[in-house]
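Before the break, one more example. Copy the sequence into your notebook; we will annotate it together after we see the structure.
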Amino acid sequence: MNDLIYNQRNIPKNQWRYGFRSSAAVGCGWIATHNALRLMGYRVDIPELIRYYELQLPLIHGNGGTSIFGPAVLFTQWSFPVTPCLRRERFNQVAKDSDVCILFYRWRQGWKLGAHFVALRHTDRGFVGYNTYRSSTGPDFYGESLEAFLDEKKYYGAVLFGIRDRRKTT
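Here is what the structure looks like once it is written out:
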């Protein structure tokens, strides 16, 4: 997949604006959605995807990022079976039972707090994520356990959305 977005910081500041801000700054929600759709083989109209999220409330047209359940709402509206999971000890199984996932988590670095969305999937080697770090240049290997990955990085408040390809369920 050569059109996956591996690092949102590489998006030029004037390309694909998200509300009044750049996608490089606050676009991880639509980027995770884009990557999840591309991983399942779907074509994505990026400006249309951004417009969809900008119209979702309550985050002021994308200026505060994407709401936690925004991707689940989108995939459900587009007829993809979605399994939300709040229990980290169940993340591995939900991810293995899904074609692709979107993971939301919060992070803290000193006094700075933030949140992030990533697309991920389970492979023969373990879990692989997309657009994980500011330094990412390709897929990021998470290891054999999502819970262990989250613990190691000290990410908290995580929510996983398992998504199945609607073409496989009809």
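Residues 80 and 167 are 9 Å apart (CA to CA). The chain is about 30% helix and 25% strand. Try to locate both features in your own notes.
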